[in-house]
Amino acid sequence: MNTVALSGVGKSYGRNTALADVTLDLGPGITGLLGPNGAGKTTILRILATALAADQGTVRIMGEDPRSLTGRTTVRRHLGYAPQETGFPRGFTAFSFIDYLAILKEWSDAGTRHEEVRRVLELVDLADVAPKRVGALSGGQRRRLVLAQALLGRPDLLVLDEPTAGLDPAQRGRLRDVLGQAGESATVVISTHQTEDVAALCERVIVLDRGQVLFDGRIVDLVSEAAGRVWMSDTRQPTAQYAWRTGTGRVRNVGDPPPDAELIEPALEDAYLLLVGDAADDERLESAS
Ligand SMILES: Nc1ncnc2c1ncn2[C@@H]1O[C@H](COP(=O)(O)OP(=O)(O)OP(=O)(O)O)[C@@H](O)[C@H]1O
């Protein structure tokens, strides 16, 4: 059974449609959610985390309907959620903050709870700062603290909203290892703007745009859609949708190549740019006609 099944899901904030007719299934492994600002990624993740109810369609998480109290409670017992933005209560240390959340997650035995708190702090490389006050931590350390609480109890469903934002490269590398291990058994869904994290970690990618699913499939299949559309040249090419001078001094072009172009292997970022760029072009053509 899939861990998550969304069918025809819609969500609006007033007159602003955030999601329109989203249908997708998620099972064990790591799925990356990409999309431009405002595409609806956080809205989907909040629905998966039972923090927000859909207006339309059906939502099933672990077979449960989160609209019912018992359904929500069951899901929450198996859920780890790292939201995009978090407030921290004043006065907590890193350890006491995670311990407090572990108590809310029904870890009543202090001995096993403290062991688990130490385990998740170690996973995100915060063991050294466990006694430090949260207010004295750096932005990246606070981000990792949010991740630590999501990992409490090895949840079956891990919902992470931009988990690598603001982390230094070493911490991102370490986090990839933690998430890769979690994805061996759990259903992990990650929203991010970092295509290289998705390429490095995920088996599957979902691209959202203006509340709709533009692509849902394997990374290799999305990348292959950009084959023959990325090339290098000495100057910026007029047929390129995106072009930038690289560190070598040559220009990387992404778009429709001229006949004599020196084609190169596309990366996930190229394929993503083309997918979202082509969708925007189609939208412009439709609204002009
Ligand atoms: N609380 C809210 N009230 C009104 N509109 C909202 C609210 N939250 C989100 N929206 C709108 O819903 C749409 C989807 O927002 P959402 O935060 O889900 O996108 P996102 O893909 O996560 O964006 P980003 O990459 O910028 O984080 C946007 O148009 C946004 O302005």
> Looking at the chains present, what oligomeric state does this protein adopt?
single chain
Q: What's the SSE pattern?
A: EEEHEHEHHHEHEHEEHEEEEH
> Within the largest sheet, what's the order of strands?
5-6-7-3-8-9
Biggest sheet details: 6 strands, mixed
User: Which stretches are poorly predicted, pLDDT < 50 over at least 5 residues?
Assistant: none
The radius of gyration over CA amounts to 21 Å
Number of strands: 13
Which cofactors or ions or other ligands sit in this model?
Answer: adenosine-5'-triphosphate
Shape: globular
Compute the average pLDDT: 94
Structure described in brief:
The chain is an alpha/beta fold and 289 residues long.
Describe this structure in words.
The protein has 9 helices and 13 strands. The protein is an alpha/beta fold. Strands 5-6-7-3-8-9 form a 6-stranded mixed beta sheet, sandwiched between helices. Strands 11-12-10-13 form a 4-stranded antiparallel beta sheet. Strands 2-1-4 form a 3-stranded antiparallel beta sheet, with helices on one face. Strand 8 (204-209) and strand 9 form a beta hairpin. The chain is globular and about 70 Å long. It starts with a strand and ends with a helix. The structure holds adenosine-5'-triphosphate. InterPro entries: AAA+_ATPase (IPR003593), ABC_transporter-like_ATP-bd (IPR003439), ABC_transporter-like_CS (IPR017871), P-loop_NTPase (IPR027417).
